[in-house]
Structures are given as C-alpha cells and as structure tokens.
Write a structure and sequence with these properties.
This protein has 260 residues and is an all-alpha fold. The chain has helices spanning 5-35, 42-52, 57-79, 88-126, 129-135, 140-177, 183-193, 196-222, 227-258.
Amino acid sequence: MNVLAPLGHLGQVVLALLASIGRFSIFAGQTFAHALRPPFYIREFAQSLLTIGYFSLPVVGLTAFFTGGALALQIYAGGSRFSVEAVVPQIVAIGVVRELGPVLVGLMIAARVTSSIAAEIATMKVTEQIDALVTLSTHPMKYLTVPRVLAGLIMVPILVGIGDVIGIMGGYIVSVHQLGFNPSTYIRNTWNFLENIDIVSSLVKGCVFGGIATLMGCYHGMNSGRGAQGVGRATKTSVEAAAMLILAANFLLTNLFFSA
C-alpha cells in the first residue's frame, strides 16, 4: 500500500491538472462565444484599451530599449572572438523581432496587466459586486471578461511592434555611439536582413500572448477564493500561469513558423 501511495498522489495531481485545463478551456470558449453576441460594452472596452495599451507603453519601451542595447553589447563581445563583429545589426534585429520583443512584452503584460485584472475581478467577487451585476441582469463575463480579452488581442500586438522598433533602436544607439558602427550601414543591414515572416510571427505571437495574459487574469479573478487571501492567491496564480503559458506558446509558435 505504501509503495502505491506516491502513484496515487501523482494520479491526483494529473487529474487536478486535467480538470483545470478543462475548466479554463470552457471559460475561454464561453468568452469568445459571448464576444460575438450583443450587448457590447464599448466604454469598458475603451477603458481596457487604455489600461492594457497606452499605460503599458513606458514599461514596454524601457524594457525593449535596454534589452536591445544589452543584446548589441553581448553580440559584439561574442562576435569579436571570431572576428564577425559586423553581424551585430542582423542578429539584434532577428533576436528582437523574432523572440525577445514578443516574449518580453508578453511577460511585462503578464506582470502588469494579468495581475491587475485578477486582483480587480477577485476583489469584485469578494465584495459581491459580481453578484450585483447578475442582479442588474448584466452578464459578468460579457461586462468584465470580453472587453479585457478583446483589448488584449488588439493592443498587445501593437505593443510588440512598438517594442520591436524601440529594441532595434536601442541596439542602434549602442552600436553607433559606443561600438563605432556606421549609422547608415547599420540601418541598411537591419532593413535588408528582416523578412516579412519575421514581422508576421512577432505580431501573431503578440496576439496570442495578449489573449493568454488577459484570459488568465479574468479566469483566476472569477474563480478566486473568499477574503484577502483568496485575492492574493488568485493574483499570484494568474501571473505564474500566464508566464508559463506564454513561454510554452512561444516555443510552439516558433516551431510552427521557423521549423525546417
């Protein structure tokens, strides 16, 4: 009996994981189904666009800029060992656009937006504001979840595009003013090296990551426990789950776009 106990515990963990995946899948399906049917809450949608997009620009911009600059320094230091320092513009461009831009923006959105959504909705549940919405004949999912998810699907790809440009600009500034690269040559090499598939993959990743981040925040907020402890647990779990799913989705999408 003692020998089988670890297997039983493992089975319980697996079943709980599968149940969580099932509940989240149903939640996501219901969200997109409600998004296709009126009523539409335009004010909530517009507020979500501002919160997710505009107010996230400073952290996204600073993260992308310093990452692009640090990447240029690292590539130059590594390339100098093999006398291939000239590849800095190309590698910075492809590294930022294909991987670092979308992933870092996704993780910043998970840290900033997912936690905020989860805490806000969980607090509404604890204070019975969601029950009040039901009393007023307002579907909580249409009012709280749909506007935030749609805003994430729209705004995060835009943030990724802006982050890509700022990240490349950070590499450009460091390369030109610190490493001695010719400005026009750097820009030409960057422009000529990037392909349409690189840009498309970056924006698609942004859309997927935005959906993951907002859905996770809404799901864990709606299913939070009671009290302050429940709100804290929902916030923590939503960020952890969003970050892991973003990294997993990044691997799958990279394999889809760039596998041999």
